[in-house]
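User: I'm preparing a small set of examples for a lab meeting where we compare how different chains pack in three dimensions. I only have the primary sequence for this one, and I'd like the structure in token form so I can line it up with the others. Please keep the answer compact; I'll paste it straight into my notes.
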Amino acid sequence: RTVLQQVADCVTSGPLKGRRLELVGRADPRGTSEYNLGLGDRRARTVSDYLVRLGVTASLIAPSTRGDLDARGTDETSWRTDRRVDLRLPN
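Assistant: Understood. Below is the structure token output for the 91-residue chain.
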């Protein structure tokens, strides 16, 4: 939450004010590809909703998913890093 508050501050009133954000939801390799794509989508949309509640303009946020396509984990410890939402600034 602290990191997302900092992101919201940065794009609402800071040096990245008005910039678009791409949110890419990711999942670990367990489950079917279809399930993991849906899970990644839900993760990205949850972060998007939270950023909007913090004041970020919804039209500046583009949630998407990669599911487990780029997952590299092989056990619980490494799967933890696969389960995330990446924030990107498009050109």
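A couple of notes for your slides: The first strand starts at residue 21 and ends at 26. The radius of gyration is 14 Å.

User: Perfect, thanks.
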